[in-house]
Amino acid sequence: MATLLTTGKAARLCSVKPDTVLKWIKKGRLPASRTAGGHYRVEERDLLLVLSQSAADEKEWEEHAALCCRPMRCWEYMNHGPGNECQDCVVYRVQAMWCFRLVNLMRSAGCAKRFCTSPCQECPYYRRVHGQPTNVLVITRDENLIQDLAKGESASVAFRFARRGYDASAIITVFRPAFVVLDQAVLESLGVALLEALVSDPRTAGARIVVAVRKGSVNYRVHNHAVFATIEEPFKAGELLALIERTPVEMVPQEATTAG
Prior knowledge:
By secondary structure, this protein is of the alpha/beta class. It has helices at 7-14, 18-26, 44-68, 74-79, 84-87, 90-93, 99-108, 124-129, 143-151, 165-171, 184-190, 192-200, 237-245, and strands at 4-6, 33-34, 40-43, 134-139, 157-162, 179-183, 208-213, 227-232. Strand 4, helix 9 and strand 5 (157-162) form a beta-alpha-beta unit.
């Protein structure tokens, strides 16, 4: 027989306040039943699952924070850590601060670029380092969201909008995004196939995928490692820009503007 706990006892076991347990229940994070008197009861095994998930989330957050609390080099920004292709790259091997400067030196020595096939000016990392607008592709059918974000375009962020996967594929041919905002409704409609397509497409290499979740769905989880973050609708361009700026890069001095 399952062991039932009061919210008070559950709180003591977790070293939190009873109000915190009630919030878990009301947000759907912790399953609970109610007594005839209207009091909540939770099963011990469900509480253990919540605790184990919380520990995993905290570890993931700590790892993410450790990476994002300092400026990133190109291999970190583009791959969230050195991928297999980066480990053989001269930029990674010498721990170069700015990859595009090393490319210039290699060119003068008669060496061609080996791993980056597109011009530096199209690279999301290069654009961030040089303070150019961050390209953001938003995939949504919400016309209000499209209109609101379009009004928020600035010198810091440039938006393009797609209402389906086919449109998105056409746009990234000429608009290489650093961030892709994917509406929860679109994700639920098309499933993980769209996520997998974005991850595998070389034109979106390094792009961070943000899922825009419906209001009240802050605990919505996308079980895919490719998802960088979630943001609750409705949101403004400024909120998205704040999310972008939480991933800092080493900014190049104003006078150094040559590209590879």
